[in-house]
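Justification of computing resources. Each target in the renewal requires a structure prediction run like the one illustrated here; the chain below, 287 residues long, is used simply to show the kind of job we budget for.
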Amino acid sequence: MPRSEVFAPAKINLALHVTGRRADGYHLLDSLVAFAPFGDRLTLTPDDGLWLRVTGPEAAGVPEDASNLVMRAVDLMGPGTGARITLDKHLPAASGIGGGSTDAAAALRGMAALRGDPALPAGLERLGADVPMCLDPRPARTRGIGEELTPVTLPPLPAVLVNPRVEVSTPAVFKALACRENPPLPEIPRFATVRDCARWLAAQRNDLEVPAMGIAPQIAEVLAALGATEGCLLSRMSGSGATCFALYESEAAAAEAQAEIAAARPDWWSASGTLGDQSAAARPRQV
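Resulting structure tokens:
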């Protein structure tokens, strides 16, 4: 029986400006996102029913019922859409790198491949603002509530990601936000090098970083640890936290920094790799 294997890469907000709030309560964002070469993996096998099994080093506490965003995404495809899905979980939950959203987007790509029909269901906005940007995981400027996507060309961005094993509630972070009417991103230039990109990013913000640190002070500790590594060009929180990232000039420098942090804080989750375009790696494979 044919199976579909799909990679679900981590999503990183290199900058995230909160620019307003709609009448329905959704916040308006202006963000620059890129994707990592590491993430979760899904295997989908056709079936009469819909089943989910979660495995992997970050499986603990991840639901396997209808509350999982993967199940909700596949359910949008309508009656008669069945599969046995295995989610191999490597990204920490509730961590600001789009774990649930990238899994849901991967499930949609995988189901479309199984069906031989690239059409995606309506109602994706019900799954959250991050799902549309994770459907095509390449660098982009995202506006509105995440549905306005403009592709962006970025240089390769060697990076380290660190999460202090603290789950941060996105609604709680937005509730703690002091100002919801902030300036948007300026025009994004074409960067020649990662250093140029880091210099430009340093003049931007993640407006959720300060309220998230008020909820989880460990975020400040992570940022300090990243900033102290040799060759760090920029350190910042991603999304609503608690995962933070740092940029470096080379993959070797990023790998050294990640090894240093992993040795000093083995209780933290960490990974290194080059951020950028993961759209080719995320295409479903039929096996």
